[in-house]
Amino acid sequence: MWPLGHVAVAYLCYTIATRARFDAPPAHIPALLLVFGSQFPDLVDKPLAWYLGVIPTGRTLAHSLLLLVPLSVAVLAISSHYDRGEYGIAFTIGALSHALVDALPALWGPNESATHLLWPVVPVEEYEQGPPTILALLQDSLGQPFFLAEFVLAAIAFVLWRRDGYPGLEPVWTALGRVWPTPG
To answer: Is the peptide bond before 120 cis (omega within 30 degrees of 0)?
Structure first.
């Protein structure tokens, strides 16, 4: 799945959970941590595999539940210790949803695998000819229904994000205003 799809799935999960628990939309900072969590596995694994070559593929270390579960427990414990439990919940939903959604194609594709969820206990298939390029990944994705579904999920997530009052946007605008003050 591409970054947009990961953010969409994470936001859908988180806004539903937040509404169910608090009958309120997500707050700003947890929404930002959710976005970071939804990208975390790729932010770790892609550089380590594609550029440094220290792990076998772009879906291994930070996509593995053997890392994500203990990391999530630690993040939840630390955030709770500082009375910011919702921060940990948001990051955890983002990170775990990423790894699980990346495993979904294994349910319907004979050439797909979810072995990354238990790497390094279960080996993953390494790249045959080196890491893929972004363009090659995009070309491979274009005809797949899963790729097209990402845009539907993103549209639904955007509608809910708008309904929720665009959580996370205010701190970003504030930070950008400090970097690029308006003239006058």
So the answer is: yes
